[in-house]
Amino acid sequence: MSAVTCCRQHPLRPLKLLIQCRPFSTTPTHFVTPRKVPKPTLLPGAAGVTETSSLPLLHNSPVAALLRRRDPFRTGVIARKKGMTALFDAKGTRTACTILQLDRCQVMTNKTRQDHGYWAVQVGAGERNPKNVTKPMLGHFAKCETSPKQVIKEFRIRDERGLMKPGTLINANWFRKGQLVDLRAKNKGKGFAGGMKRHGFSGQPASHGNSLMHRAMGSAGQSQGGGSRVLPGKRMAGRMGGEHVTIQLAKILDVNNQLNTVVVKGCVPGPIDGIVTIQDARLSHPPSISTSYRKSMISPSKKTPPPTEGKTEVLVAAA
């Protein structure tokens, strides 16, 4: 019995103690420390979760989708494109820029998550003849205490801290020099265009027997084997332009509060006198609100704690 050993680590231990011994392994053991996964942030009252619950926030819930949007804290403005020019710095470097002018931009109303499902500020700009406005819209303008506006837009904000009082006039000093903004506009419509103009195709050869096929697109799909159809998304001739374009992280070069203009670096989509919306960039740090607009902000509602039973008894006894 003594000749039969347990393992190489214990040659003098009998076989009956095999259960107590760890089996021999030629490969060394590696201890891998588990990676610490951060816990998801909790939002009280989100998706039916109470404030005292410790359930994590679901990634496919509506509240999680709103948190992933990274909406700006402040509302945006509506401006008109007035044209392009150039600015020169002290070294003589020329920078192309676009002039945007604000035209009687006012806050119309606010959208809250409790009533509408999201946070937003409705802004109007321009002027319109009341004779050309329908009666429901005239009632809406009267409720907002503003004149009939030509253009009305909504700007999503992150929470209730960005809500503003209706009727507040927003000027060019809402932005600051050197700030990064996002520009949204509708580019020029160019009508029906071919493949070379719309997508930049090089075209077919201009010689060697080519006849009347110089600017043609070429084959568009399979004859057999691929379903005998044109695949979705194929770049072909069609209507060009007239689409909404967003330019992110555009730098503001100058702000003129007297002319109510904002000078933005680079080009802006759209024709002259086209509508352009300007809002704080989502991918940059939000700027601080100037002191001239702090009185127009709506302070978040503070919940007052309910009175305790002891105080209630004292009030009843005093009555």
Automatic annotation (TrEMBL):
GO terms for cellular component: mitochondrial large ribosomal subunit. One of its GO terms (molecular function) is structural constituent of ribosome. Belongs to the universal ribosomal protein uL3 family. GO terms for biological process: translation. Residues 287-319 are annotated as: Disordered. Transmembrane segments: none annotated. Keywords: Ribonucleoprotein, Ribosomal protein. Coiled coil: none annotated. Residues 287-302 have a biased composition (Polar residues). It comes from the Eukaryota. This is Large ribosomal subunit protein uL3m. InterPro entries: Ribosomal_uL3, Ribosomal_uL3_bac/org-type, Transl_B-barrel_sf. The keyword Ribosomal protein applies.
